[in-house]
From TrEMBL:
Coiled-coil intervals: none
Species, as recorded: Australozyma saopauloensis
Gene Ontology cellular component terms for the protein in this record: catalytic step 2 spliceosome; U2-type catalytic step 1 spliceosome
Protein name per UniProt: RNA helicase
Domain Helicase C-terminal: 242-416
Residues of the full protein shown: 182 to 855 of 855
Source organism superkingdom: Eukaryota
Length: 674
């Protein structure tokens, strides 16, 4: 640890505390006492009163005040789940934009209620349902609730719905709110609660006919903000140095929360910090590094909530999930890189990519606020004050204005919402975006020329995935390669890392990985992995020998089982196309029938690719099997674009030029003529 390389900060203004006088530290570890100590508890009765006399209530409160864990329990204790009589249970639903939040909160509330998860308290996220007949409090992702409209348009199994984290403005939340606006007219008995952190409340109230805003006074101590004096070129390195700076100079207790953009960064930082603390050994007090991100298995997630042992310090490395959806007690220092990873859809090209962008000032203040829950705190911003005021946008862009909407549009069409132009969006997406998405759906065969949903489209809508995936699945049945396509798609849809490379065995790990390589690229390489794992009895040991993450493969297997079941329901019998014998080409073609918009052609110089549809340069991602293939294939189909220094194609497959005309002629007419 080199003192001369310290990150240089200038102290600045304070983020004022809120109502800090009312703060009382919970002294009992007893769970019910903790419940009673939360700010929401003081408002319990007035909350129940306002819900009783208003169909829609907007609830606003500081993060950690008990909105998510307590309000559904109050409704439950009040008997809202028994409103249909003693026999039938009506659920109290609470939506979350993030899967981790839904599962982690459900687990916590089950503990508070004193039941097993899946009994009175449960959750439901994509491909995983932990709820049952007796479930009265159900946490679910907003996307799952949206899907429930397909089978139960009036949401008759619910007595109350809390749409939580509404300030996040995810596409699913906004569509759900819009649909609920109609449902509540028909169902006077349904109670709707819209909960958000401190921003945007009046906008929701306006949208719901001036619904009352119910405030839960927060408790937050002042937080001192420090900015770096100069811009930091490498924010991860700066974050690591700052953690060590704090750890050596600041008194204990006082845990640290670091905001990063994703799993890769978190893993890198975790490894570096662990190594540094091993090297420093007895020179420093113990440093406990605990990561939290969407794909982390629940057991490891729980570590962030474990009390920090005496005389040591916990460092939580988090994505923006810790901004508002998860509250970790004991945090005194926040380190904010100032970035967030977002999916951005470009309506001009019709392409979507994952991009790291500066977070908003509102987010940065939320993040800083996490330092002031136990006492006065401090936030280290890894950017300059100038940058805060000049480079960070005031508020984030709602997802609906930047995301690819084809999946949601298909879902809306399938439940009979056909007039999208006049759909009651809170912030309507641009016509260009809507048209792009309709075009894509049309070219996938989900819509007819009149823009009406087709039978194929209806089937596609049944799968909780991007329409491109769904199309590939449907085609695979015709081509008699369903099993392989389901395997590949399950592998692709799991975003946790599959491979690992221990520092001391990198070469061996790479060698093992090469054994799976398929000349046609990453999709078939993934298929090889799947086949070999299956043939080795889905063994854990086999994974270890091949440097593959067992828990990732296990999740993939679960997803695959779910997809298999869905297939049986949606496409029971399907004529297999004539003489088609299952072979690798059929697998490739089935994939291409869905992903044909993602084709790139090798440039004349042979050093890059251009998207076939638009003349935009893209590059093979270094992780791709095709990256090192010489000469590079003329045409590739990619699974996704990742924008870092360049626009990279991740997961790529070689395709045959003749297939373009055969399978995507309708889409590429102009390009083929040229
Ligand atoms: P809000 O939704 O208002 O941000 P929550 O209901 O999520 O607040 O959290 C209220 C409190 O419950 C937190 O301050 C924390 O003390 C406690 N809590 C929440 N989840 C957990 C968990 N998984 N483990 C331990 N404590 C938790
Ligand atoms: Mg919450």
């Amino acid at each position: 640890f080199d003192e001369s390389q310290l990150v240089d900060y200038s102290e600045s203004a304070e983020l004022p505390g809120e109502d800090s006088a009312t703060h009382e530290k919970p002294t009992h570890s007893d769970i019910q006492a903790v419940r009673k100590s939360l700010p929401a508890f003081k408002q319990r009765q007035s909350f129940l009163d306002v819900v009783k006399s208003n169909q829609v209530v907007i609830v606003v409160g500081e993060t950690g005040s008990g909105k998510t864990t307590q309000l559904p329990q109050y409704l439950y204790e009040e008997g809202y789940h028994k409103r249909a009589g003693k026999q039938k249970i009506l659920k109290i639903g609470c939506t979350q934009p993030r899967r981790v939040a839904a599962t982690s909160v459900a687990r916590r509330v089950a503990e508070e209620v004193g039941c097993s998860l899946g009994d009175e308290v449960g959750y439901s996220i994509r491909f995983e349902d932990q709820s049952s007949q007796v479930t009265a409090i159900k946490y679910l992702t907003d996307g799952m609730l949206l899907r429930e409209f397909m089978t139960d348009p009036m949401l008759t199994s619910y007595s109350c719905l809390m749409i939580d984290e509404a300030h996040e403005r995810t596409v699913s939340t906004e569509i759900v709110l819009s649909l609920l606006k109609d449902v509540i007219k028909e169902r006077q008995d349904l109670r709707l609660i819209i909960a958000s952190a401190t921003i945007n409340a009046s906008k929701f109230s306006d949208y719901f006919n001036l619904a009352p805003i119910f405030k839960i006074p927060g408790r937050r101590f002042p937080v001192t903000i420090a900015y770096t004096k100069n811009p930091e070129a490498n924010y991860i390195q700066a974050a690591i140095t700052t953690v060590l700076q704090i750890h050596m100079k600041q008194e204990l207790p006082g845990d640290i929360l670091v905001f990063l953009t994703g799993q890769d960064e978190i893993e890198t930082m975790e490894e570096t910090l662990n190594e540094a603390s091993r090297k420093l050994g007895n020179l420093i007090k113990p440093l406990i590094v605990a990561p939290i991100y969407a794909n982390l298995p629940p057991k490891l997630q729980a570590r962030i909530f474990e009390p920090t042992p005496y005389n040591s310090r916990k460092v939580v490395l988090a994505t923006n999930i810790a901004e508002t959806s998860i509250t970790i007690d004991g945090i005194k220092f926040v380190i904010d890189t100032g970035y967030v990873k977002e999916n951005v859809f470009n309506p001009a090209t019709g392409m979507e990519s994952l991009v790291v962008v500066p977070c908003s000032r509102a987010s940065a203040d939320q993040r800083a606020g996490r330092a002031g829950r136990v006492g006065p705190g401090k936030c280290y911003r890894l950017f300059t004050k100038w940058s805060f005021y000049n480079e960070l946008p005031e508020n984030g862009t709602p997802e609906i204005l930047r995301a690819n909407l084809s999946s949601v549009i298909l879902l809306l069409l399938s439940i009979g919402v056909s007039d999208l132009i006049n759909f009651d969006f809170m912030d309507p997406p641009s016509h260009q975006t809507l048209i792009r998405c309709l075009e894509l759906l049309y070219s996938l065969g989900a819509l007819n020329v009149k823009g009406q949903i087709t039978e194929t489209g209806q089937k596609m809508a049944k799968f909780p995935m991007d329409p491109m995936f769904c199309k590939a699945i449907l085609t695979s049945v015709e081509y008699n390669v369903k099993d392989d396509i389901l395997s590949i798609i399950s592998m692709l849809s799991e975003s946790s890392s599959l491979f690992y490379r221990p520092k001391d065995k990198k070469e061996l790990a790479d060698k093992m990985r090469e054994r799976f390589f398929h000349e046609a690229g990453d999709h078939l390489t993934l298929l090889n992995i799947w086949h070999q794992w299956r043939d080795n009895g889905y063994s854990n040991l086999w994974c270890e020998d091949h440097f593959l993450q067992y828990r990732t493969l296990k999740k993939i297997r679960e997803v695959r089982n779910q997809l298999e079941k869905l297939c049986q329901k949606v496409i029971p019998v399907f004529p297999v196309v004539g003489e088609c014998t299952p072979d690798i080409c059929s697998v490739q073609k089935a994939l291409m029938s869905g992903f044909f918009p993602n084709i790139a052609k090798l440039s004349k110089l042979g050093n890059s690719y251009t998207l076939l549809k638009k003349n935009q340069p893209v590059y093979l991602h270094p992780s791709s099997r095709l990256f090192s293939v010489k000469p590079p294939p003329k045409y590739v189909l990619y699974h996704e674009l990742v924008l870092t220094s360049k626009e990279y194609m991740r997961n790529c497959m070689v395709i045959n030029e003749t297939w373009i005309d055969e399978l995507a002629g309708h889409y590429y007419q102009k390009q083929i003529q040229n």
